[in-house]
Amino acid sequence: MELITAEQMQAIDRNAIATLGIPGPVLMENAGRAAAEEILCDAHELFPGPILVLAGRGNNGGDGYVIARILADRGWQVETLVLAEEGHITGDAALMLQILQRLGGKVQFVDNQVSLPELFSAAAPHLIVDALLGTGLSSEVVGLYRQAIDLVNQSSAQVVAVDIPSGASGSDGRVLGVAVEADLTLCFDSAKIGHCSRPAADYVGELRVLEIGIPRAQRPPADQSCILIDESVAAGLLPRRPLTGHKGTFGHLGVVAGSTGMTGAAVLCCEAGLRSGTGLVTLFCPAELHAILEVKLTEVMTRPIAGQQDHLLIDNCAEIETFSAAYQALVLGPGLGQNPQTVSALRQLVAGCRSSLVIDADGLNALVGALDLLPRNEDSQPILTPHPGEFSRLTGLSIAEIEADRFRLARQFAIEHAVVLLLKGASTLIADPAGRVRINSSGNSGLATAGSGDVLSGLIGGLLAQGLSPFDAASLGAWLHGAAADLLAEDSGCAGILAGDLVKTIPVVRHQLEGVCVC
Fold first, then answer.
1. Residues 274 and 128 in one domain
2. What is the tally of structural domains in the chain?
3. Which residue pairs from 98-101 have beta carbons closer than 8 angstroms and sit at least 24 positions apart in sequence?
4. Percent of the chain with pLDDT over 90
């Protein structure tokens, strides 16, 4: 599903009105009527209310006036609180307000913080319609609007947000100070980035996209690409698997992983690579750990690197670079540790490697302060897969700063460093150097388990070895990883899912995906 910015939606609206000749009031009427019908269907058990519509001074408020009018006409007890002076309502919103008032709608205007709590309390709503701010918000919510949002969030009423929860940015998913915590969000025409990108996505509740009569043809071109990875998108990314293929057809993945106490990371990464569908996987491992890993891994080839040590040395780099040159992809980092010698070796491998790279875990830690070593290859950009803590170390930003502005920071980092960045977390983000972003829709809290990240890096590496582009491999890998957790959770819940369970479930969800229609 395509996601757009607030600015793109504004351009679509302007084009519909100015170029296609669809009057603005018609679009507002369509939006409010579509939202009202959804509320009537969902909230019938609350009839006859009371319902409180909170309206701002702009077009979002105009949608709210239409909703209030239609609900009142159906016999509901509706009160509308407008957070502005009556004379400040203009344009199409003023027209809808006038119609509501002429029909006897109960409307009160509030322009100060003293009277709002009393009016809110007197309304005692069972359902609140948030029509305060809309998708175009760009500055922090303060004053009367902030007070109103706080009152909504303290209420026990059901909350329906019109277009987007007030306080959330439609363009990048930031929360601008405070946001309405909605149970249901009814957005118009197209889903926005803020509906699906955290932290704003955490406030949306259930999301429904409503058509309001804007044709899909002759729309202005988008200047920013963002896609929600759902089943249909993921199915379109699956690599072809010809019946005449052999193990060489499906690629060779190299993995540099493991140290004392962390051989499991290497095992999970390698097995996930095989389960992705790649034909061959070879693990480069410290010589002292080779016997252990030979026992743990049956289908994976193991190659002990020279020297009797339990961690990677810079002396091993030439050997790894020589052999891995024939591989289609190389995963660096899972369980390698942070021994200074290992860090130096990893940096040399990153700078000198000619294979397509997936860099995870200790591979990312080795890049702290050394991002200039990343190769700049237009055909095959390195894939970095940090969780927020690792991204914090790479950027010098706090985790709180990252979590508050995930979309913009991920996109900016990918462009600046010419990499594909997969920023882990709920609604994982994948960004590429061209400024494209994809947001993953699969997954649950069962992924918060030891070794889950090692599975993801191996899975992405395996897809990369099968010929997918870095952006597509990271995108499909994220979806399959989350979908495996979702399938496991259907049977036994989220708690207690093991990384090894994910590995075994990857082929199942991939097989299911092969039957999905690509729309």
1. no
2. 2
3. 99/65, 99/69, 100/65, 100/66, 100/68, 100/69
4. 84
